[in-house]
């Protein structure tokens, strides 16, 4: 997460900025969440499966400074970015080794490998500062942004209710972009538990462990 934090800083991301993230379950998701928090930015995970209209609405609601996305959603992200005329950097990761993103997006994997692994400069954060920007739909079906503060994360998390302790391994079979998933994942990290990330239902193959 340190290298990711340095790259975000190099891209001009500052405290209070929002970083949109669109990807299936993978180890980069929690690493990006933590990287954002280290520099005082807000992580804004987007639903992985959306059409162009839904994505455009969510991006408009989130108003990110940077968009980081997995290569598997390039066919959705890139046309939407062109239609909206998004001025912020677009960074693609997870592409096949030896290939590179087209000229519309920068290569996250290459850029992050060039960054320092040391901790970024410390940023003072208040409990009421934003930690995540999550998206939901209102009664009319229009996307809206929900602010989740660091205080919210602490208030919502009760280790006694989930009976999770340091060293536990937790199968995560739902997307790391819903409020429930984000809160639970942050609790797991604080307690020193491991996440086994799946991209399907409870019986799906485990693809990565964090």
From TrEMBL:
**Short name of one Pfam family:** AMP-binding
Q: List the signal peptide residues.
A: none
Top-rank lineage group of the source organism: Eukaryota
**Which residue ranges does the record assign to the AMP-dependent synthetase/ligase domain?**
2-201
Q: What is this protein called?
A: AMP-dependent synthetase/ligase domain-containing protein
| Organism per entry | Eutreptiella gymnastica
